[in-house]
Amino acid sequence: MARKKIALIGAGQIGGTLAHLVGLKELGDVVLFDIAEGIPQGKGLDIAESAPVDGFDAKYKGANDYAAIEGADVIIVTAGVPRKPGMSRDDLIGINLKVMEAVGGGIKQYAPNAFVICITNPLDAMVWALQKFSGVRPEKIVGMAGVLDSARFRHFLAEEFNVSVEDVTAFVLGGHGDDMVPLVRYSTVAGIPLPDLVKMGWTSQEKLDAMVERTRKGGGEIVNLLKTGSAFYAPAASAIAMAESYLKDKKRVLPCAAYLTGQYGVKDMFVGVPIVIGENGVERIVEVEFSAEEKAMFEKSVASVQGLVDACKQINPALA
Ligand code: A3D
């Protein structure tokens, strides 16, 4: 059986980390694409030279021409610019929308049947634009954000409770902005919901609220520490979990930005919701019931995404 082909569009901080993880997990052969000459070739060669040490088999190819992604099974898009301190994700929209147009054209021409995962910010608007530019069927394109946001929340919770991260589940929905919606009720330690853990004295409501707030601002916390860019290890790991669920038909239930056609009262937008990812891409969109407070938070988050989508339509009227 031929190895799967995984194309990484953008060979920067996240792209390079993705390329390394694909090898370590033996998910397939890798094409690294970037407009910067030498970077994808150099990173590909460097990782290929680590393979004998780590004992994995994968071919690496660096490219500056879209023809190299031809027939890719999975495409992960990180092309564009990341945030610097003081910038919001939304400040990136002008530059990254143009990048999505170029990337979408490449995908349309060379790999229209791939499963596409977008990471470029502002996430929910960029994945929406990328779907329009590429023409990829909506069930074959998703945005990575919820897995990362949930992982951040899980990390904070595991530290607070002094338990394994493996036994902490978390649920973060909505757009990937500071008004994302961490669903405390659906987040658990070994199946015990967080509100019960507060009642059991494991933590206080104040501390839980602070962890929710830290999760919402988790991306900014890293940007302020790094100063030269944004998070890349956890974002890459999160996208790999999504790619793996598709490639191995694992049917994992993961929070991702998915194209909604009326679910949660939202139409023609990508918003973070729980989905099942299997060999057909997005195989199911899970609709959970919200409390009045959660619904209000979700609607606020959706309104922010709508604002970004409207801004895209203004910048590029072809999207309207
Ligand atoms: P960075 O290390 O700058 O890599 C981006 C790469 O894109 C660079 O190598 C550029 O040369 C390349 N590039 C720019 N324009 C093009 C183009 N037209 N075609 C192909 N390649 C191009 O950034 P990064 O890897 O740290 O982050 C990449 C993106 O992910 C940014 O937009 C971040 O904001 C975003 N990001 C999203 C999350 C989410 O959770 C959604 C988390 C972290 C970062």
UniProtKB/TrEMBL annotation:
Task: Please tell me where substrate binds in this chain.
Answer: 83, 89, 121, 152
The reply to whether Metal-binding figures as a keyword in the UniProt entry is: no
Enzyme Commission number(s) from the entry: 1.1.1.37
- Which InterPro entries does its entry note? L-lactate/malate_DH (IPR001557), Lactate/malate_DH_C (IPR022383), Lactate/malate_DH_N (IPR001236), Lactate_DH/Glyco_Ohase_4_C (IPR015955), Malate_DH_type3 (IPR011275), NAD(P)-bd_dom_sf (IPR036291)
Active-site residues (renumbered): 176 (proton acceptor)
Q: What keywords are assigned to this protein?
A: NAD, Oxidoreductase, Tricarboxylic acid cycle
User: What SUPFAM superfamilies is this protein classified in?
Assistant: LDH C-terminal domain-like, NAD(P)-binding Rossmann-fold domains
State the reactions this protein catalyses. Answer: (S)-malate + NAD(+) = oxaloacetate + NADH + H(+)
Domain Lactate/malate dehydrogenase N-terminal: residue ranges:
5-143
Q: Name one Pfam family in it.
A: Ldh_1_N
UniProt: NAD(+) binding residues:
10-15, 34, 96, 119-121
Record domain Lactate/malate dehydrogenase C-terminal: where: 148-304
Q: Which GO terms describe its molecular function?
A: L-malate dehydrogenase (NAD+) activity
Major enzyme class? oxidoreductase
* Role this protein plays: Catalyzes the reversible oxidation of malate to oxaloacetate.
What is stated as this protein's family in its record? Belongs to the LDH/MDH superfamily. MDH type 3 family.
Q: Return the NCBIfam families for the record.
A: MalateDH_bact, PRK06223.1
From the Swiss-Prot or TrEMBL record, give the protein name: Malate dehydrogenase
Q: Which gene encodes it?
A: mdh
